[in-house]
Design brief:
There is one protein chain. By secondary structure, the protein is an alpha+beta fold. 28% of the residues lie in helices and 27% in strands. A hairpin with a 6-residue loop joins strand 1 (36-41) and strand 2 (48-56). The two termini are 18 Å apart.
Length: 184
C-alpha cells in the first residue's frame, strides 16, 4: 500500500514528499497512530489494486494537521463516530475500469468502507480530494455534503466532503452485480 500511495500522492499529485529512507514508499507521521487500512486485491493478478486509510477524527488526522483550513467548524469533525478516509488510491494498471467508466477497486473499497463503518458505529466519513472524485461519487453512488473547497497553486480544485455512512450501501447496492462476490 505504501508503494501505491507513493506513486499517487508523491509522484502523481505531489501532495507529500516521499520517504527519504526508502524512496519507493510513502510513509507519513500519521501511520504510527491508530489507523485502519482497507485493501483491494485484484482477483486475477492477486496484486493490491487499491486501498484506503481510515482514522477516527477524535485523534490526529490529516484534516486537523494538514487541511485545517478546509474545516469551517473543526469541533464538528472531532468525534469517535466521524472518521477520516485518506490515501484512497487505485492502481489502474492492475484494476481496470468497467466499460471505461467504473473502476472495480473503487466500488469494492467504497462498499467495504461502509461495511466497516456500519459495524463500528461510525456515522460519517469525511475526505479531502479533487473535485472529480466527488463528482464521480455523486453520479455512481452517494453524494457528499461539500463543506469547503479551495484552489491549489497548480489550479487543482480540492474539496472537503462528508458522507452519511447509512446512505453508502443503499446508493451503491446496484454495483454488487458488477463486483460479483461481496467485498469482505
Amino acid at each position: 500500500m505504501n508503494t501505491l500511495c507513493k506513486k499517487v500522492f508523491c509522484d502523481d499529485l505531489g501532495w507529500v514528499d516521499g520517504n527519504s529512507g526508502n524512496p519507493s514508499v510513502e510513509i507519513v507521521a500519521l501511520d504510527s497512530h491508530f489507523t485502519i487500512y482497507i485493501l483491494y486485491r485484484d482477483e486475477k493478478s492477486r496484486k493490491i489494486a487499491g486501498g484506503a486509510r481510515l482514522m477516527p477524527t477524535n485523534g490526529p488526522t490529516l484534516l486537523h494537521q494538514v487541511w485545517e483550513d478546509m474545516l469551517p467548524d473543526a469541533a464538528r469533525f472531532h468525534s469517535s463516530d466521524v472518521w477520516e478516509v485518506t490515501r484512497f488510491c487505485i492502481d489502474e494498471t492492475v484494476s481496470s475500469r468497467k466499460n471505461s467508466l467504473l473502476n472495480k477497486a473503487t466500488l469494492a473499497l467504497s462498499l467495504t468502507i461502509s461495511k466497516f463503518a456500519h459495524v463500528n458505529n461510525i456515522c460519517k466519513v469525511v475526505a479531502i480530494s479533487q473535485r472529480y472524485f466527488f463528482n464521480m461519487s455523486s453520479v455512481f453512488g452517494p453524494k457528499a455534503e461539500i463543506i469547503s473547497s479551495k484552489i491549489e497553486s497548480d489550479g487543482t480544485e480540492i474539496l472537503c466532503g462528508v458522507w452519511l455512512v447509512a446512505e453508502i450501501p443503499e446508493k451503491l447496492g446496484w454495483t454488487r452485480t458488477l463486483l460479483g462476490r461481496q467485498p469482505r
